[in-house]
């Protein structure tokens, strides 16, 4: 079986510069980078346990396909893909699996070790792997730093060599920065120096994968970095009495203290619990009669034996404390201590209510990295996919119903709005019609009023005309005669003036002053103002220029 390990690593056009040599004592050392912050690019690498290296797959953060100038100087047979954030996803990993099958030897089966990233676990990828006899093995969470060969032996060297290549490029071309079109060439510069057979075999060996060596991994590296709690050393004496229990109130404390001082001998479970908590080395026992039988104190090897009473003890009776009774050291006394202890514990059990722990079923949030059987993984993933599809369908159906309900409410509101608008328009038309009718009636009244006023005015004028007609008739004749005289005088004056030059006719006796009358308009013209050059050529009929034009 061939063993392969694949993993992705993030790089950026803003590299991390290495160490800078400077003079001793300088507090600030500067180093040149392309920018302050750059977007992440992903490089997917795959190696085998025998040192075989596959060409890389590079993912650029862009939506359009990778242009040809980005591929110049890249590692031969490099596969280029794009995503929105520059990270690998399920579709790109499926394409990489096809690229993986096309570039490895035909020997089958193949074990492909990878981390449990969500992009590496999909139904399509698993089915494609099964069809090509590839066994996918996902490492447990938070263990790739000690179980993944690429992380252990290769990627650290690759990052260092890539940063070195970026620094060398910027030093070789001053003023230039690392851009996306130079990234593949810089990866190609660092690739052969990092993905060496020695580094790959060392990574598989340190992880204990090939040759198989479970003891190669140190379990202490899986332990938490800090303890959850640090135990504190107790400086108190172990023989000190326990503090008072907070389950007793102040009144109960005072009552039980007084009973203890007075030698209370009546059975009370609460008082027994108080005695057990506050005075654990004191015990009481009650005889079959009413008298106090014995009182015992802590036993010691130096205590002197004392005579004991012959009264039999009742093992189940509640012990009673008395200061006047002698201290016993016999077996009966020991029996009394044990009986009182059991009685106090039973009393405590009745009083104290401890919380009961209940097992809560943990929620399963995804594919467990410890899943061994591929069929179980597929079934679980298919079930999850089916549940997601059902939830998506339910969500879509609910959204559709909500949208329909919203549209229905919108239509109802629109219908109500239209109804209100229609009623409002009807009311407005009615009001406008009433207003027009009122205006018409008002106008008719005004017209009627004006007509009456005109009739009155006309009647008044007719009366005035009749009244003044008598005076006007006599004056009309006089005015007419005067107007005729004025017109005749005015016409005579006009006829005595030449229409062309405006000269007046002076006297007929002057032979040099010759005037000619137009036979068309009967106006007199000075001979000089006509087109007749000599008085001998005066025609019988003469028409002025105006009459000729007409």
UniProtKB/TrEMBL annotation:
Which residues belong to any copy of the Zinc finger PHD-type domain? 497-548
The UniProt record lists the keyword Zinc:
yes
Q: Which InterPro entries match?
A: CenT-Element_Derived, DDE_SF_endonuclease_dom, RNaseH_sf, Znf_FYVE_PHD, Znf_PHD, Znf_RING/FYVE/PHD
Residue ranges, compositional bias (Basic and acidic residues): 384-447, 454-468
Keyword hit for Metal-binding: yes
Alphabetical GO CC annotations of the entry are: nucleus
Q: Which residues form the signal peptide?
A: none
For the region Disordered, give the residue spans: 384-471
Provide the alphabetized UniProt keywords: Metal-binding, Zinc, Zinc-finger
Q: Which CDD domains match?
A: PHD_TCF19_like
Question: What Pfam families does the entry give?
Answer: DDE_1
MF (Gene Ontology): DNA binding; zinc ion binding
Q: Which PANTHER family match?
A: POGO TRANSPOSABLE ELEMENT WITH KRAB DOMAIN (PTHR19303:SF74), TRANSPOSON (PTHR19303)
Please report the name of this protein according to its UniProt entry: Zinc finger PHD-type domain-containing protein
Give the organism the record lists: Amphimedon queenslandica
Native organism taxonomy? Eukaryota, Metazoa, Porifera, Demospongiae, Heteroscleromorpha
């Amino acid at each position: 079986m061939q063993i392969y390990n694949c993993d992705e690593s993030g790089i950026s056009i803003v590299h991390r510069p290495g160490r800078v040599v400077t003079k001793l004592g300088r507090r600030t050392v500067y180093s040149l980078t392309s920018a302050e912050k750059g977007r992440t690019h992903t490089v997917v690498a795959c190696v085998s346990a025998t040192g075989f290296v596959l060409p890389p797959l590079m993912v650029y953060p862009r939506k359009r396909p990778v242009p040809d100038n980005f591929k110049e100087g890249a590692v031969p047979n490099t596969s280029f893909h794009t995503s929105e954030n520059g990270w690998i996803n399920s579709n790109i990993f499926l394409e990489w699996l096809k690229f993986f099958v096309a570039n490895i030897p035909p020997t089958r089966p193949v074990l492909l070790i990878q981390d449990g990233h969500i992009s590496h676990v999909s139904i399509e990828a698993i089915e494609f792997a099964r069809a090509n006899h590839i066994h996918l093995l996902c490492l447990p969470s938070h263990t790739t730093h000690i179980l993944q060969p690429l992380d252990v032996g290769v990627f650290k060297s690759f990052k260092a060599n890539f940063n070195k290549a970026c620094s060398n490029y910027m030093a070789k071309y001053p003023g230039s920065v690392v851009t996306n079109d130079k990234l593949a060439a810089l990866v190609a510069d660092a690739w052969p120096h990092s993905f060496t057979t020695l580094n790959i075999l060392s990574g598989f060996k340190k992880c204990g994968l090939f040759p198989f060596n479970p003891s190669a991994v140190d379990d202490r590296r899986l332990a938490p970095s800090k303890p959850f709690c640090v135990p504190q050393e107790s400086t108190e004496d172990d023989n000190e009495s326990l503090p008072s229990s907070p389950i007793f109130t102040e009144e109960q404390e005072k009552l039980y203290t007084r009973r203890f001082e007075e030698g209370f001998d009546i059975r009370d479970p609460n008082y027994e619990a108080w005695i057990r908590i506050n005075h654990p080395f004191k015990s009481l026992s009650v005889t079959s009669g009413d008298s106090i039988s014995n009182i015992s104190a802590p036993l010691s090897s130096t205590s002197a034996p004392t005579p004991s009473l012959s009264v039999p003890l009742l093992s189940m009776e509640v012990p009673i404390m008395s200061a006047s009774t002698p201290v016993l050291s016999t077996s009966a006394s020991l029996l009394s201590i044990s009986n009182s202890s059991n009685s106090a514990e039973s009393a405590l059990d009745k009083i104290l209510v401890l919380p009961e722990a209940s097992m809560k079923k943990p929620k399963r949030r995804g594919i467990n990295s410890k899943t061994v059987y591929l069929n179980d993984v597929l079934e679980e993933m298919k079930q999850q996919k089916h549940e997601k599809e059902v939830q998506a369908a339910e969500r879509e159906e609910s959204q559709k119903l909500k949208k329909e309900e919203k549209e229905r409410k919108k239509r109802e509101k629109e219908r109500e709005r239209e109804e209100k608008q229609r009623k409002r328009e009807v009311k407005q038309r009615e009001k406008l019609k009433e207003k027009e009718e009122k205006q018409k009636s008002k106008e008719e009244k005004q017209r009627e009023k004006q007509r009456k006023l005109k009739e009155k005015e006309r009647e008044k004028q007719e009366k005035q005309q009749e009244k003044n007609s008598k005076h006007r008739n006599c004056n009309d004749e006089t005015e007419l005669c005067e107007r005729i005289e004025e017109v005749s005088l005015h016409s005579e004056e006009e006829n005595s003036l030449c229409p062309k030059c405006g000269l007046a006719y002076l006297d007929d006796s002057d032979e040099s002053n010759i005037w000619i009358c137009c036979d068309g308009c009967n106006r007199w013209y000075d001979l000089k103002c006509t087109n007749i050059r000599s008085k001998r050529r005066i025609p019988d009929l003469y028409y002025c220029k105006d009459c000729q034009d007409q």
